[in-house]
């Protein structure tokens, strides 16, 4: 964990009534045979926030999420989700979660409306079926068999099924893969409205603009370790955000990182108009790539590269 990344500290609280954290993870480890997929991570998700778990392929995100959802056992560490150890999560606990898995499992002969009605019947306080269909923009497809939908439309059904039970905590594992740009923006609106209703959300995404648009806080996981955690606009710390001034001098590109780009530009301009002058503020994507670049591969227990 690098300096300024805001490592969580302290013990775990118990019982959802006593904590404002919907997720608490301490020292979480998961080993698959010779691969240590998750190597001792700590983080909390506060009630009502949207938290983005970011990281390259194979970083350990899905493993972590599946442990939180109660689908996968952990090797070590402590986990509480809505105050309960997922390993002991019962049906009433599961009904408080909404889960949108990474790959779409929905096909079959049921129509969109039939499938949603069926799932709504499984929850104690479901969302209205028609409202949910409208929320994911599938009004025109309500009577279409799910097997006949496009990939992006099936993904919307996944999201609809994830929210039909009015979850307190919604897991969204790469929810907008396969969405066209307009559908993605519609989806962002839906997520914001869920957040406004008080739903806590754990989002994984490879789209950093999506994380920036939706998340309050985020964590970057690489090689099974959390390399940064914090407010989404502060990930990586202040140093990573120092602007870069770039210009051309006698045909040679020069650049300088400075916290006072205005002063540098003024100095350069005093000697004549600088050629191809630009001031660049590192984006979340630049910062992310710098952070994961160092640890993007997972070492096996033998220390070899997987
Ligand atoms: N069931 C399994 N058995 C063995 N190894 C596994 C299993 N599931 C995942 N792994 C390994 O654990 C590591 C972490 O995988 P995981 O699926 O958690 O990554 P991820 O961050 O979700 O990746 P992606 O962005 O591609 O979904 C990878 O090296 C993967 O090969």
Automatic annotation (TrEMBL):
- InterPro entries tied to this protein: AAA+_ATPase, ABC_transporter-like_ATP-bd, ABC_transporter-like_CS, ABC_transporter_ATP-binding, P-loop_NTPase
ABC transporter domain ranges (all copies): 23-248
Q: Which superkingdom heads the taxonomic lineage of this protein's source?
A: Bacteria
Q: Which SUPFAM superfamilies match?
A: P-loop containing nucleoside triphosphate hydrolases (SSF52540)
Localization, per the record, is: Cell membrane
Fetch the Pfam families from UniProt. Answer: ABC_tran
Q: Which SMART domains match?
A: AAA (SM00382)
Q: Which UniProt keywords apply?
A: Antibiotic resistance, ATP-binding, Nucleotide-binding, Transport
* Record's bilayer topology term: Peripheral membrane protein
Protein name per Swiss-Prot or TrEMBL: ABC transporter
**What organism is this sequence from?**
Homoserinibacter gongjuensis
């Amino acid at each position: 964990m690098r300096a300024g990344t805001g490592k969580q500290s302290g013990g775990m609280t118990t019982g959802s009534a006593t904590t404002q954290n919907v997720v608490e993870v301490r020292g979480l480890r998961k080993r698959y045979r010779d691969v240590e997929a998750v190597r001792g991570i700590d983080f909390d998700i506060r009630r009502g926030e949207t938290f983005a778990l970011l990281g390259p392929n194979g970083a350990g995100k899905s493993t972590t999420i599946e442990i939180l959802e109660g689908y996968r056992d952990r090797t070590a560490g402590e986990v509480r989700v809505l105050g309960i150890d997922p390993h002991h999560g019962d049906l009433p606990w599961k009904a408080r979660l909404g889960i949108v898995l990474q790959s779409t499992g929905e096909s079959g002969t049921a129509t969109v409306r039939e499938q949603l009605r069926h799932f709504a019947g499984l929850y104690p306080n479901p969302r209205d079926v028609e409202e949910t269909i409208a929320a994911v923009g599938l009004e025109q497809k309500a009577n279409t068999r799910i097997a006949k939908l496009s990939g992006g439309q099936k993904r919307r059904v996944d999201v609809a099924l994830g929210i039909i039970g009015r979850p307190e905590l919604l897991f969204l594992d790469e929810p907008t893969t396969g969405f066209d740009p307009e559908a993605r923006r519609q989806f962002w609106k839906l997520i914001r409205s869920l957040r406004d209703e008080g739903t806590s959300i754990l989002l994984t995404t490879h789209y950093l603009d999506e994380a920036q648009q939706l998340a309050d806080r985020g964590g970057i996981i690489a090689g099974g370790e959390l390399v940064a955690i914090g407010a989404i606009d502060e990930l990586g710390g202040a140093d990573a955000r120092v602007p870069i001034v770039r210009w051309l001098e006698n045909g040679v590109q020069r650049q300088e990182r400075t916290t006072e780009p205005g002063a540098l530009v003024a100095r350069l301009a005093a000697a004549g108009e600088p050629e191809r002058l630009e001031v660049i503020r590192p984006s979340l994507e630049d910062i992310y790539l710098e952070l994961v670049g160092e640890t993007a591969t997972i070492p096996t227990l033998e220390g070899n590269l997987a």
